[in-house]
């Protein structure tokens, strides 16, 4: 990214997250890397986790350039579906930095497919990556979140923030598509609903220990893989005209929301869903079109969604 304003606004003060450690799954992705980049710019060090070794390490090195002295570790070859894989990544992060203060659970899978086209294995794959992966991320990092929360609690008598800053906070990356549903996304809708429920449970069970747990639900964000998959270029201009704010979002919008939740500004925010979508989800109740995939005509045709990798026609 070419400038600070590409990934964070001028609202936040430098050094806000000095001496803090961020652990982020899906950290080499467009949205999550911007979130981490913003936190590192504001003083944090980070471990980003991914499947692809070369990409994860390359993105980590790039993020570290935003602040002199920043340390960012890229841990590749991690499968969030396997708890032992995440435990190893967490151990490496803690060995390097001494602990973990903030967690972003952002690993996800997505593609367009109708239920007829969606095999049981393809459905399970998304559930495993999104829901089980989020749960494994939580389980692997929870002891360190508890430790950090204990160090950084707001004084219950004076309500003054900790002089050492904040910690013990987790954000799960979700979506808005399950609020009113859309075609070709049954697998993702189910997965994201599960992630939302998980976050709410964490907030209730671990709030007494000082941990906050929240959801950030991005809407359509420019220059992301998800946007390219779900909204082809031939439909993008028409779609933008239907948006309440007349634009789609930027990764900076998501990064700023992340800073808000992790900073003192979010000290009493827990068990919440922070939708960052410019009111986009309120504009439709599903339906619409995905480029040339007009609803309901495409579904009624019986054709398969083209160019879907890794899926097979399911047998009814």
Automatic annotation (TrEMBL):
Q: Which branch of life, at top level?
A: Eukaryota
Q: Which GO terms describe its biological process?
A: fatty acid catabolic process
Q: A Gene Ontology molecular-function term?
A: 2,4-dienoyl-CoA reductase (NADPH) activity
| InterPro entries in UniProt | DECR2-like, NAD(P)-bd_dom_sf, SDR_fam
Q: Which Pfam families match?
A: adh_short_C2 (PF13561)
One of the record's GO cellular component terms: peroxisome
* Enzyme Commission number(s): 1.3.1.124
Q: Which PANTHER family match?
A: PEROXISOMAL 2,4-DIENOYL-COA REDUCTASE, PEROXISOMAL 2,4-DIENOYL-COA REDUCTASE [(3E)-ENOYL-COA-PRODUCING]
Q: What is this protein called?
A: 2,4-dienoyl-CoA reductase [(3E)-enoyl-CoA-producing]
Q: Which organism is it from?
A: Aspergillus glaucus CBS 516.65
């Amino acid at each position: 990214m070419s400038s600070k304003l590409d990934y964070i606004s001028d609202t936040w003060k430098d050094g806000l997250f000095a001496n803090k450690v961020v652990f982020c799954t899906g950290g080499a992705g467009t949205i999550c890397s911007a979130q981490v980049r913003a936190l590192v710019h504001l003083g944090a060090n980070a471990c980003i986790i991914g499947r692809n070794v070369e990409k994860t390490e390359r993105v980590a090195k790039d993020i570290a350039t935003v602040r002199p002295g920043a340390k960012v570790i890229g841990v590749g070859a991690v499968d969030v579906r396997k708890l032992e894989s995440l435990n190893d990544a967490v151990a490496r992060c803690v060995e390097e930095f001494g602990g973990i203060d903030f967690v972003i659970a952002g690993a996800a899978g997505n593609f367009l497919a109708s239920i007829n086209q969606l095999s049981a294995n393809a459905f399970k794959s998304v559930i495993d990556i999104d829901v089980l992966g989020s749960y494994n991320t939580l389980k692997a990092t929870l002891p360190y979140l508890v430790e950090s929360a204990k160090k950084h609690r707001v004084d219950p008598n004076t309500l003054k923030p900790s002089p050492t800053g904040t910690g013990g906070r987790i954000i799960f990356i979700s979506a808005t598509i399950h609020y009113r549903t859309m075609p070709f996304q049954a697998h993702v809708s189910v997965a994201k609903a599960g992630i939302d429920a998980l976050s709410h449970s964490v907030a209730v069970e671990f709030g007494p220990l000082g941990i906050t747990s929240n959801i950030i639900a991005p809407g359509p964000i420019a220059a992301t893989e998800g946007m390219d998959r779900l909204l082809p270029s031939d439909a993008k201009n028409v779609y933008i005209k239907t948006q309440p704010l007349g634009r789609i979002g930027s990764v900076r919008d998501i990064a700023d929301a992340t800073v808000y939740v992790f900073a003192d500004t979010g000290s009493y925010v827990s068990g919440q869903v922070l939708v960052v979508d410019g009111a986009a989800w309120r504009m439709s109740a599903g339906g619409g079109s995905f480029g040339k995939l007009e609803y309901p005509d495409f579904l009624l045709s019986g054709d398969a969604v083209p160019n879907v990798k890794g899926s097979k026609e399911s047998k009814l």
